[in-house]
Design goal:
With 162 residues, this protein is an all-alpha fold. It has one domain. It contains 6 helices and no strands. Helix 1 packs antiparallel against helix 3, helix 3 packs parallel to helix 6 and helix 4 crosses helix 6. The longest helix has 20 residues.
Length: 162
């Protein structure tokens, strides 16, 4: 087996895809979301999964909340995550309370110590990119792929507890 050059590997352990490393895919997704409100629906799980797979690009103090959000998404789906996000935005808009309301995320496990995991069974550099888009085969297919990345992220971090 040949070693993969460092330039072709990502912090998450994945090898580069046709667009490059995961950061290239992540930035491509963020750019495409700006023109596609339906694709933007998956913004929160994309950000949480990317930062948990690449924690050197994240602020450590937020990783626990992002891990809990990702667990909520995997457990209850996109609509539940969007409701929690809307609750946070409304709460902040009204200025009624300061800080993030952790109550909706309380049932979920905290971020395990000892991370990050060395590999994830699904990573951003594995996403298909066709016809200049991540959603060329439809939003549902894109959503399923983001779900797989989210599940792989939660699974890898949770395995650190064992």
């Amino acid at each position: 087996m040949t070693d993969i050059p460092i330039a072709n590997r990502c912090e998450c352990g994945a090898t580069a895809g046709p667009l490059g490393v995961c950061a290239d895919y992540y930035h491509g997704i963020l750019a495409e979301e700006q023109a596609d409100p339906r694709m933007y629906s998956w913004h929160a799980p994309v950000v949480c999964a990317y930062l948990l797979q690449h924690p050197s690009r994240a602020r450590e103090k937020y990783l626990d909340g992002q891990f809990r959000q990702l667990q909520l998404y995997v457990d209850q789906g996109l609509d539940a995550l969007l409701r929690v996000a809307a609750h946070q935005v409304a709460r902040n808009r009204h200025g009624s309370r300061s800080g993030y309301d952790m109550a909706p995320l309380a049932p979920y496990e905290p971020l395990p110590p000892g991370g990050p995991p060395g590999r994830f069974r699904a990573a951003f550099s594995g996403l298909p990119y066709r016809e200049g888009s991540f959603v060329a085969d439809g939003h549902e297919a894109y959503g399923r792929r983001i779900q797989l990345i989210a599940e792989a992220t939660v699974e890898a971090w949770t395995s650190l507890r064992a």
